[in-house]
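EI: anyone free to look at a 511-residue chain?
SC: sure, send it
EI:
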Amino acid sequence: MSPRAQVYCLGLFFILLGAGLVAYKSQVLSLPITPGEYQTVWTIEAKVEFTARGDAVKASMALPKSQANMEILDEIFSSSGYGFTVENTDGHGRATWTKRRANGKQTLYYKLDVYQTEDNSTLEPLELSTTIERPDWSGTRRASLREAAANIIAESWQKSSDNESFVGQLLKAVNDPNNKENLLIRNSLSNQTTTQLSLDLLATADIPAHIIRGIYLEDDRSRLTPVVLLEIFDGEQWLVFDPKTAARGLPKNFLIWQRGDKSLLDVEGGSRSRVRFSILTNNVPARDVALKEMGSEQVALLDYSIYSLPIEQQSIFKFILLVPVGALVVIFMRLVIGIRTAGTFMPVLLAIAFVQTSLINGVAIFLLILAVGLWVRSYLSRLDLLLVSRIAAVVVIVVAMMSMISIVSYKLGVEQALTITFFPMIIIAWTIEHMSILWEDDGPIEVLVQTSGSLLVAILCYLVMTNHYIEHWMFNFPESLLVLLGLIIILGHYTGFRLSELLRFCHMRMQ
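SC: here you go
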């Protein structure tokens, strides 16, 4: 394989590898590809209240778990003076608060942060019991009750084609105020809720069913009681229904708190227990949500990344990662456009200085120091000093000028000029030396050309390095360095005409 083919293959390999890693972090790890993206996070607080009788207390509450379209980011348990444990049994989590002695009104808190995903898949399969417990409607007094239930079931069965449609017809009959059988059952069971009546009828029809407790995610709601839905087994999967409207499917903004027939709250040693929910929304940067979601998982691409460094080092790398972007700009401007600069990568260093001082102040300070430095260098050349001593003397003078400018700007209240110390002093000293030699060899015109070219490229590097999108991509997707490396390798083999040369010789083409 020829060197040119190797260059293009290697460059394309790095570009595809970097782009693939960026796509993986964006699509799989959910890191935002653009800056300023926010994610709505729901903060839900469960307030457990009960009255203790002065004895030992044990309170147990069901805990929610992540579902297909909901992800739990954080959980906080508040139980001052109580022992606390979390137990997991058959896929169901329960929080347990215990205390040796408690008296009077007690309040416990559980808070979690969740956010909604775009996943529209069905409920996660759980090992839920399909055992059917038929209602006790025996006895001669309940003969009419059994007959009414059988009529509702038979009528719903005739109007349906499978278990799913049967449940929908059954729930409509139970909620129909004009249905005679429904009224008869309700009159016989005055304390029977619509949900419990539906469960009894489904059990009579040999269809496994249980309730789902949860809450609708709506902003700024307080003192909410859990909403109850029905979940039935059609022989292959569990299906969700609203017992009041017979609507099929789990609502998109519904957070499942508990699945199954276990109680939501159990309190031993207390009475008048209840759970109330409060909901509040917050707009959180999407990157923070993604990092928090992956925080509990050892994702190698994040575990061995800049995010694992201390904050102080992260801020340093956030700035360093922009240097290769400036290097790519310099290479493009020199090799493709043909702009001459003083030094190979001096424009990048100048751009770094401009980032610290702001563009206008940085350009003004650079031109001032360069002008004074060239004048001093011309005087030192008359003294016939050696090269090392001459450059060292220029460095001392540059530092002295920086100090003087900083002091004067501070006294005048111009705070932007205080960041002058970020200028690369050695580079400026070498630039002054280079410009002096260039002045002696090629004259002032070439000095002006290279100085102007260096400033132009430095300004372009500054504009690219301070772009919000570039800053976001390089810090959150450092794999982009591979893309830059591939582009630099490909540009490094460019041997065609530069744009400046095409403009220079355009008159020859016209002839």
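EI: Residues 387-412 form the longest helix (26 residues).
SC: 👍
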